[in-house]
Amino acid sequence: MSEKILVVDDHILFSQSLKGLINSLQDFEVLDVLKNGQELVTYYESNKIKPDIVLLDIRMPVMDGIETMEWFKENFPDQKVLALTMEHEEETIIKMLKLGCRGYLLKDIDPDEFRYAMETVLQSGYYYSNEVAEVILHSEDKRKDQFTKRELEFLHLVCSERTYKEIAGEMNLSPKTIDGYREQLFAKLNAKSRTGVVLYAIKNKVVSI
Amino acid sequence: MSEKILVVDDHILFSQSLKGLINSLQDFEVLDVLKNGQELVTYYESNKIKPDIVLLDIRMPVMDGIETMEWFKENFPDQKVLALTMEHEEETIIKMLKLGCRGYLLKDIDPDEFRYAMETVLQSGYYYSNEVAEVILHSEDKRKDQFTKRELEFLHLVCSERTYKEIAGEMNLSPKTIDGYREQLFAKLNAKSRTGVVLYAIKNKVVSI
DNA sequence: CTTTACAAGGGGAAAATTCCCCTTTTTAAG
DNA sequence: CTTAAAAAGGGGAATTTTCCCCTTGTAAAG
């Protein structure tokens, strides 16, 4: 009896190719190939066969992987979902895992490991590649470097063309306090200029533009 | 007689899946699957069968797609190469085409169109998807707003923690000249601070981080 | 109780950025 | 030929950012 797989990825060439590969694996068959989270919601809302595993990309238009995981958490919290993506950014990995994702696969995984990952999830419920395990291991450490509420507020304003004086006005603070926050961010981010802070914030997706 | 394809992509799951799909197409067969430009150079330097088409990803470690195209231009200028990538950044598209790439495929192409693209390249030499054709059509317009060579050089250095004085040293210019360039960028980008310039450059993917 | 973290703030000044007024030379397009 | 663009650069100064030295008060944890 075949394990049923649903593939959700907007890169059609990839998803169709992957369908071929999965169908060539003994014990696995692809139920359908969907292009985004919205199509998946529609699929679940119709009386179609539910899959054993959902392979879910993250970067998709209309409804992305994170949003889709949020929907699963609320509607089908036990559905086994494996992220399958190029995104190896820590924040994304942690977020997906917290939302109940059973594993996180990068697209450079080889087909044997891919098959092993699916089998592991079906048997024990979770699969972590070495890279992802590293991220989880170090994520507790990283938490120590998180920003305070006020710092984060300041950081968002720093990533704009406002002068510090203007930022002080917006936050109802003295320019001297702003200078204090600037100093705190410099220390935390090992930055030596506002530009450095901005580059860090955007690069690490603390702030989006 | 089958058309011979070489797949160059570091995402193994994708490339192995794609191999399966291509091999399932009548008249096509995959010679080999390589992980980066360096592996491809090694392949060409050995006495192996040359492919009819190379499917080449851009973002790869060790030797990327651009570098690989440069190698082809110098060593096998007539080799038919199709870019196959997620990168829909205009600068990248133009660069690849200028280096002799016969077509530029995005990974959200469907398998039928994919097959048609390969057939078109084999027959007439070139294939452009609608999206890429748009880029080419508008790239002449855009050139009017493009940065000069020196401005671009400066812009990349601005998106760093170097002081203008340091940038002047790196570009072998006077700080007054740097100030001139700063002014030029401010005018072109309607910016009023270095932070504004940095935000624009990153947002519009003129500079990547 | 002490210590730490967070929030808010000060004095003073050096360094960096921005601004405002220009210049000359070379090259390419009309 | 003229004009515009690109490249390189200058004097001078105001504004902003960064730096270095601190402070107090509150809340939470040990």
UniProtKB/TrEMBL annotation, chains A, B:
The modification 4-aspartylphosphate is found at D57. CDD domains: LuxR_C_like, REC_NarL-like. It comes from the Bacteria. It holds the Pfam family Response_reg. Gene3D superfamilies: 3.40.50.2300. It comes from Salinimicrobium marinum. Residues 140-205 form the HTH luxR-type domain. This is DNA-binding response regulator. Keywords: DNA-binding, Phosphoprotein.
